[in-house]
Amino acid sequence: xxxxxxxxxxxxxxxxxxxxxxxxxxxxxxxxxxxxxxxxxxxxxxxxxxxxxxxxxxxxxxxxxxxxxxxxxxxxxxxxxxxxxxxxxxxxxxxxxxxxxxxxxxxxxxxxxxxxxxxxxxxxxxxxxxxxxxxxxxxxxxxxxxxxxxxxxxxxxxxxxxxxxxxxxxxxxxxxxxxxxxxxxxxxxxxxxxxxxxxxxxxxxxxxxxxxxxxxxxxxxxxxxxxxxxxxxxxxxxxxxxxxxxxxxxxxxxxxxxxxxxxxxxxxxxx
Amino acid sequence: xxxxxxxxxxxxxxxxxxxxxxxxxxxxxxxxxxxxxxxxxxxxxxxxxxxxxxxxxxxxxxxxxxxxxxxxxxxxxxxxxxxxxxxxxxxxxxxxxxxxxxxxxxxxxxxxxxxxxxxxxxxxxxxxxxxxxxxxxxxxxxxxxxxxxxxxxxxxxxxxxxxxxxxxxxxxxxxxxxxxxxxxxxxxxxxxxxxxxxxxxxxxxxxxxxxxxxxxxxxxxxxxxxxxxxxxxxxxxxxxxxxxxxxxxxxxxxxxxxxxxxxxxxxxxxxxxxxxxxxxxxxxxxxxxxxxxxxxxxxxxxxxxxxxxxxxxxxx
Lengths: 271, 316
Hints:
The complex is a heterodimer of chains A (271) and B (316). Chain A has 271 residues and is of the alpha/beta class. Chain A has helices at residues 48-56, 83-89, 106-112, 120-134, 136-140, 151-163, 181-197, 209-215, 233-238, 240-245, 262-270, and strands at residues 7-18, 22-33, 37-41, 64-73, 76-77, 91-94, 169-173, 201-206, 218-223, 226-232, 249-250, 253-254. In chain A, helix 7 links the parallel strand 7 and strand 8 (201-206). With 316 residues, chain B is mainly α. The chains are: A alpha/beta (271), B mainly alpha (316).
């Protein structure tokens, strides 16, 4: 990790309960260094999305609640703030499945991202050009309704929309979902560029462990609402278990999924 | 029998074109007012997914506040400003007291809550301003009175000046709203909220703020409607019945479409008057009160999303 200095965001042992009964996160802790790219990895239902939503506080709109632990951003407790207060502070989430405003044009979508800003039209315009610089394709489609653009363009719109808020930290949920491998690569390249050029900190949730570990500096592996492993991306990539369970590799090279025993895969971490 | 249904009315229309114009005009005026009420419904439905049963009462309440304030010695312009402030306070309290605690509840609960709001407003209005019908302060608001006779198609058409004013003001109101939605920051946020609550939350749009704005806008529309409708008859709680006319307008125009509300209102208004005048006598008159619902029923069968209902964009 290069910029492994101060943690900009730290999640301390949080527990999340949905609907007052469903315990989803059972004590998750993680820290995100300022200027880093941190990946949250794990299978479906591991708690990646819930962790991100607990940070951005979109959780409460889904009847979820952080019942234990706390979340700090720049040394300040933020777990009781509303999503718009967090966006003002510089933490914005790009939700899984894009969630563009389908009936608005691409450009209008981007402009909604600047809703919380108070620094005037000119600055917003300038940032719009900046976003088009990173995503030239969006400029071509600026007048089309977002609902009719392709999945990749929608993902770009969603990320661009978040950038319009001038965030310091973007919580990126499953950017690869439903996209062709080439596009996934393109999106991650832009994430890296934004991280290097704009110093945006990323916390991203991904199922695609392979891609995520290539671009992230640090990774956390979640299973059943717990962090079961963490480390720098390089160490995780080399870890035998990660190789076997998440990258589909084993000591004897590539392994067929038929030979993997499922009960074994589950037991392994919890033991 | 068939002749009197399918041929005779049209013969009459052609033979006496001036009468037809008069009926059409009456229809347009009624339609404009229906459209305004429907507009109030659409605004709230789009932004918060709530079918606001209280919209009709808001019309009465706004008009009543205006007239009541004036009766108590407040000059008309000031009364107008104060009424606008009252509508803002109302929007704010509804968001604080009703919508915020009920967030994430099923739609039907919010719908029932608007029932509560409407009865509360009836009670409040009667308590403060009394239950008797009142006269709208037409002159003090500098609305024109009287009628103009126009020579059209070899006949005479009488047009109330007030109706012209109503149509013009309604048109301006719609144009203003359109500009507000298209090219302001809050307007854009409103459309974003209407599109997806979750995504709007994620980019930092405060739903609570937007709800206040949208209920306030609906309150302003209600005030304009109340003034216009009150000037044509009088200001009383009987006015709330016209809110039920907004229902067929909405079914016709689509619940989520502002242009739909306008076109739907005009179609219902004109259809109603034409039906009453040319076909009404066949059944002894009085079809005006239910014809709109019949038209809506036919629409529900063939085009349930309405004329302009939002198309659901689906990518394959």
